[in-house]
Amino acid sequence: MDRESQRLARQTMAFILAGGRGSRLYELTDRRAKPAMYFGGKSRIIDFPLSNAVNSGIRRIGVATQYKAHSLIRHLQRGWSFFREERNESLDILPASQQLDNENWYKGTADAVTQNEHVIKGYAPKYIIILAGDHIYKQDYSLMIQHHVDSGADVTVGCIEVPRAEATGFGVMKVDTEDRILEFVEKPADPPAMPNDPDTALASMGIYVFKTDYLFALLADCAAEPGYGHDFGGDIIPHIVKTGKAVAHPFSRSCVRSGREDKAYWRDVGTVDAFWQANIDLTDFKPELDLYDNDWPIWTYSELTPPAKFIHNEEGRRGYALSSMVSGGCIISGSSLEQCLLFTGVKTHSFSQLEGVIAMPYAEINRNARLKNVVIDRGVIIPDGLIVGEDPELDASRFRRSAAGVCLITQPMIDKLDM
User: Fold this and answer.
1) Which among 15, 187, 241, 296 is least buried, having the fewest CB atoms inside 10 angstroms?
2) One MF term in GO for this entry (predicted)?
3) 152 assigned binding-site residue
4) Is the pTM higher than 0.85?
């Protein structure tokens, strides 16, 4: 990061949209918003955009919350309370609230910014970067802000390069050779290709950079238009494409990679299968996402826990883990783990066998359980002798089983079992 990029980052406020439920995660988001979902053994999804902002030199941050926000707010208060106003730093938690002549819920992504105009203007940032709070990636936002300034754009849109055949579920940019966006299409059947690369498309990451004054003037103008949907992707960006200068910023230009990462990493873990796979991938010998990179740390709330402990060494009752990640406070008591990821405080008991298990904090797996390819919600107590992952029909009748064969287990599902 050069000095000019650092200066621009200091003039920027990050506004993180963290109010979404993530309905395709089903029961996992019954009690928490998607950005508050656990990831990687000790983090939450929201920690990734927050860490990117801090590591990029941005010290003014607002987090807009809405759906089931208590878990998210509690995490932010516990893990992100180190900002100091005397150093021109701040983190504001911005729940949807009753406004004069307005409903209390945010009507859309753009409305979340509009309703907090007074908060943002109070800090007088020259630039604002709008971020989605529910993706896993590492990015130096200062480079994107620098691109925005250098290009003279009205808006700069962060984009990931995806195979054109897979871009039908995204908002896709048609751009020229200078990165100017010529067309913005939501979920096109025939996605436009990148210049000079017919097999690749540019899909929106939901990241936007604006000059702050320009953005609020634009929001006021768009609000007066009939049919305004209060959404960046559906209203604001297409409007700028037609009337101003919108520029695409490919993720590959500002993604952060350590020496152990071969390619740019970005994931939307919005389904049970995607969530399970992204977590299990971290147990690989050389994972695509390096969480051990001290040059770009993922900050989070770290509970005070004792080290993980492995006990018993008898045939059939040996506490061990292969190709697994085990967090602090875990006790692996006479059970075997293979390609598992255990969050803080998980306990596994004698003779249990776990393979491909994601166990969220303070789950407990009792004796003789055999679990394969499952996601266990926080605090769930797995009963003695439970077998999951061997009989698809039985699994589907008791738990939520995905198309790929991953079973989601929650405590209410366990409570309904007749064992």
Assistant:
1) 187
2) glucose-1-phosphate adenylyltransferase activity
3) no
4) yes
